[in-house]
Design a protein that fits this description.
The chain is an alpha/beta fold and 381 residues long. The protein has 2 domains: 239 residues, no CATH class; 125 residues, CBS-domain. Helix content is 57%, strand content 15%. The protein has 13 helices and 12 strands. The protein has a 4-stranded mixed beta sheet. Strand 1 and strand 2 form a beta hairpin. The longest helix is centred in the first third of the chain and has 32 residues. The protein is globular and about 80 Å long. The structure holds zinc ion (ZN). The site of zinc ion has 5 residues, from helix 2.
Length: 381
């Protein structure tokens, strides 16, 4: 999930929102301002309901953000780098670069999110009780009461033992610890995720047919998303297992041919494309720092008569859109980041210095080798 708007940094982590977050914000605000609040506290000015709905919606999004920030902070403390946090249609995602290295870290990183949500729920509940006791307006108490309930609901939903939900990650950590088998634990948690996703889809369809309307469709959407995400996790677990401990610097092409950002596309074709076997070229700026990546796919899209006036920088993936890896990073951790603008390639940076490039061919080769290695292992019957 890509961010559309960057909000800033919290606890050293980039926070952004995808435009789809406005869909949930509007749904929640509308549901509260036009439904729940007028029913519970009738007779107020319409603006009072709208203000209460907007405030509740915003604080709810902030609560989701706090949940995700807690995942990110604990992940960093357990040695897992964090790419950023994005709020979107189904809540929040903390994008971790890789996975926790042991079951305990897995359980801590996953468990802290629901813990924070329950804590927030309790805090909002206490404020509601306090305000009620002080004789505050009913709708103000109502906002805090709703925030208390919704945070607890969020925690309980996330604790369902089905990956990619937090409960699924905790399940994986527990099974991994008990059996010592990371792959088996990941597959079980992911299959539970698929089953739970389908359960939600069916439940939503029944709801929809029974007349719940939008609520039913929402469940179908959430269930469908979970099913897909869990399927991707299972696949990723298999690939991770196949790749084992292979590091990025063991598969990368070292010292790739680099080109200056202001090189015309025609020169790139004449001087490099025809004379080398490479299909992508990292760009460097005047100071020699990496600035992006241009692939043959992108070169081909420039019409012949424009090749002299178009520079490689005009058509390249800028550096912030290219997957970047460290040489000592595990290849399995890099794989999920390879999608996107750079046609499955990643630049390998040691600090700010470009030391290599990983291509889909390198990854495919490594998987083939892993297959051979597996076939050589004695089979237990
Ligand atoms: Zn979570």
């Amino acid at each position: 999930m890509n961010e559309s708007v960057r909000l800033g940094r919290i606890a050293g982590v980039d926070v952004g929102v995808n435009w789809t977050v406005f869909v949930i914000f509007l749904l929640i605000t509308f549901g509260l301002a036009a439904g729940r609040f007028p029913q519970e506290h009738p007779g107020l000015e319409p603006t009072a309901y709208v203000v209460a709905g907007v405030v509740a919606g915003l604080v709810f999004l902030a609560s989701i953000l706090a949940h995700e920030v807690s995942h990110a902070v604990v992940a960093q403390r357990n040695g897992v780098d964090v790419d950023g946090i994005v709020l979107w249609l189904f809540g929040g995602v903390a994008r971790l670069r890789g996975e926790p290295g042991d079951p305990g870290a897995e359980i801590r990183v996953a468990g802290v999110g629901p813990l924070v949500s329950v804590g927030l729920g309790a805090a909002f509940g206490a404020v509601a009780v306090l305000l009620g006791g002080l004789g505050a307006p009913g709708i103000t108490v109502g906002v805090f009461a709703w925030l208390a309930v919704i945070n607890v609901v969020l925690a309980v939903f996330n604790l369902v033992p089905a990956a990619p939900l937090d409960g699924g990650r905790i399940l994986r950590g527990v099974l991994w610890k008990r059996r010592g088998d990371r792959l088996g634990a990941s597959v079980t948690a992911a299959r539970a995720g698929r089953a739970f996703g389908w359960f939600l889809v069916v439940l939503g369809l029944i709801d929809f047919v029974a007349g719940a309307g939008g609520g039913g469709l929402w469940l179908v959407l959430v269930g469908w998303f979970l099913t897909n995400a869990a399927g991707a996790e299972e696949h990723h677990a298999q690939v991770r297992h196949a790749l084992g401990d292979v590091r990025v610097d063991q598969v990368m092409t070292a010292q790739p041919v680099v080109v200056p950002s202001d090189l015309p596309v025609s020169r790139l074709i004449d001087d490099h494309v025809f004379s080398s076997r490479y299909s992508s070229f990292p760009l460097v700026d005047r100071t020699g720092r990496p600035a992006g990546l241009v692939t043959l796919n992108r070169v081909k899209q420039v019409p012949a008569d424009r090749r002299g006036t178009t520079t490689v920088a005009d058509i390249a993936c800028p550096l912030d859109a290219v997957a970047v890896a460290r040489p000592d990073e595990s290849l399995a951790d890099l794989l999920p980041r390879l999608a996107g603008c750079s046609d499955g390639r990643a630049l390998v940076l040691d600090g700010e210095r470009l030391v290599g490039i990983v291509s889909p061919t390198d990854v495919a080769h490594q998987l083939e080798v892993a297959d051979l290695r597996d076939a050589r292992r004695p089979q237990h019957v």
